[in-house]
Design a protein that fits this description.
The protein is built from 10 helices and 12 strands. A hairpin with a 6-residue loop joins strand 11 and strand 12. The chain is globular, with a radius of gyration of 21 Å. The mean pLDDT is 93. It starts with a strand and ends with a helix. By secondary structure, it is of the alpha+beta class. It folds into 2 domains: 229 residues, Hsp33 domain (3-Layer(bab) Sandwich), CATH 3.55.30; 52 residues, CBS domain Like, CATH 3.90.1280. The strands form 3 sheets. A 5-stranded antiparallel β-sheet has the order 8-9-2-1-10, sandwiched between helices. A 5-stranded antiparallel β-sheet has the order 5-4-3-6-7, covered by helices on one side. Helix 1 packs across helix 2, helix 8 packs across helix 10 and helix 9 packs antiparallel against helix 10.
């Protein structure tokens, strides 16, 4: 089944909702990076958050990057997303696999750590990107993003992201949602939604039981006039190319390129997002050195 992201409203537009089933894209990403179980859960949650946030962008040329690093053994996760809900990302240490936490779940918080910040970087084509940050709240990622919305954007939000990892490291289910109260919304609505979220099973469990993201949101917003506005298929897409890698090599400067050229060896650069390798012969590096010298 294809992944799906939906944008919706409820209660005459007083509530904004974005929900997604991201099993396929997370499955692809954790295989690309060779993630262990705890790393898969953390990386999958970040990718899901990225897809949700990306769908909130207004222009196809905009991008949003989420970065979290709390000093834990995971060594940080970075995810970049676009308005079509596509994402790419990398993880500092994909081999992290910690013992279960106190409630028997994968210890994402322990892998992330709490001594650091969550960064949200919006690139909207301006001279400088907008950078927002908050201290890591729990390290569970969903809670941290909700904290960011509340503190940095003054938008009361509920964020849930979950990934179920099987014993063979395959992804059983993955998904998430962002629920936000719009300005002027009835305060009692927020209390009612909080109560309903506390009463339903975890999102990843519901998805693993075969429920669709529409069915889960319909359960939460029963009798609240849920209206689906848009649908997307979130995907893991890396836009790397040899041309971009060449530009990165030229950007290291003439001196460093001369050292590479003088070594007389073939160079191989690997994309940190998809692990695709790009090889540059001694002659290729000579050509890049000419380009760097002419600038």
């Amino acid at each position: 089944m294809k992944d799906k992201l939906i944008k919706a409203t409820a209660k005459d537009g007083q509530i904004r909702i974005i929900g997604a089933d991201t099993k396929e894209l997370v499955s692809m990403a954790v295989k690309l990076h060779g993630c262990a179980a705890t790393a898969s859960a953390a990386y999958g949650r970040m990718l899901t958050c990225g897809s949700l946030l990306g769908s909130m962008l207004k222009s196809s040329s905009d991008a949003i990057t989420i970065k979290i690093d709390g000093g834990g053994p995971l060594k940080g996760v970075v995810v970049t997303a676009h308005s079509d809900a596509s994402v790419k990302g990398y993880i500092g240490n994909p081999k992290v696999d910690l013992p279960a936490n106190s409630i028997g779940k994968l210890d994402v918080s322990g892998a992330i750590g709490k001594d650091g910040n969550l960064f949200i970087i919006r690139d909207m084509g301006l001279k400088e990107p907008y950078v927002g940050q908050v201290p890591i709240y729990t390290g569970e990622i969903g809670d941290d993003l909700a904290y960011y919305f509340t503190v940095s954007e003054q938008t009361p939000s509920a964020v849930a992201v979950g990934v179920l990892v099987d014993k063979d490291l395959s992804i059983i289910s993955s998904g998430g949602f962002i629920i936000q109260m719009m300005p002027g919304a009835d305060e009692l609505l927020a209390d009612l939604i909080t109560y309903r979220l506390q009463e339903i099973p975890p999102l990843s469990k519901l998805l693993s039981e075969g429920k669709t993201i529409e069915e889960i949101l319909s359960l939460i917003f029963e009798d609240m006039d849920l209206k689906i506005l848009e649908e997307f298929e979130p995907k893991y897409i890396c836009d790397c190319s040899k041309e971009k890698v060449e530009k990165a090599l030229i950007s290291i400067g003439k001196k460093d390129l001369e050292e590479l050229y003088d070594d007389g060896k073939e160079e191989e650069l690997v994309c940190q997002f998809c692990n695709k390798a790009y090889k540059f012969s001694h002659e290729d590096i000579g050509e890049l050195l000419k380009k760097a010298s002419s600038k």
